[in-house]
Every structure is written in C-alpha cells, then in structure tokens.
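Justification of resources, computational component.

The compute hours requested in this renewal are based largely on the per-chain cost of generating structure records like the one below. Each record pairs the submitted sequence with a full structure-token output. That output is archived, and it is also reused by downstream analysis tasks.
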Amino acid sequence: MKSSAILVLILLSMVASACKPPPPYCTESSLTYQDPGTEFPPLQDTKSADPISMEVDGKTMEFDQVIHGPLCNNHLSGKVYIACDIQIAKWQEKPTFLDGCDFEVSPGSVLYVAAHNNAPYFQGCDYCHLTGRGLAP
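The structure output for this chain reads:
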C-alpha cells in the first residue's frame, strides 16, 4: 500500500512538471523598439534564391525568407521565418507597429513568428498589428 502511494505521488509530480509552459522563444532584450516617427530603411529584398534551412522546435525546416532587423518595409512571400532579433516601432496600447510601413504578405504565404513561440500564421500580420484592421482599433 505504501509503495503504491509513493508511485502515485511520483507519477503525479512527473505529470505536473510536464504541464509547465515552455520558456519564451524570444527574450524581451532580443526585440528592438524604435521610437515613433523614426524612419525604417527602405523596402528590402529578403527573398533567398535557395531555401534557408533552420531548426524550429527541434525540426529542420526550409524557408524562402528569414527576417532579421527591421520588420517594417518588407514584402514577404512563401514560407517565412520572422526571427527574434527584429526591430519594430514602439506602441502605446495596441501593438500596431506596422502603421506607416510598406509591409505586404503575399496570399498563400505562411509566417512562422519566433516572438509568438514559432506559431505559423496564414493571414499575415496586419490583422493584429495595423490600425483599422482585425483586432487593432
């Protein structure tokens, strides 16, 4: 009886430790915030001629584009990875850091966003990060 109770406690502690959320993929210091009104560099060509292999969540994946540095002024297409070391504009209440950017995502593209725990997004970023669209006021 005593060994059964100990076994149950061990199993419960293992299950409880497995429920702990994973650490964030991006630290707060990995993102760079620019003051409102600061200009970002002009449109960049971030499309690679060859697929770029990266390890994401323990799996090797190939991407058409990997974004580092300024997120603003990009045209994204295909399978895209947005890394932790991006630069975005500061915001007040809602994260509308794409306001004033020349930012486009081609239809059918999939964006994997490190700052969102490598979640894939199929509708781009403007739904949540641009004033007047989706969740942003």
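The chain has a mean pLDDT of 80. Residues 2-18 form the longest helix (17 residues).
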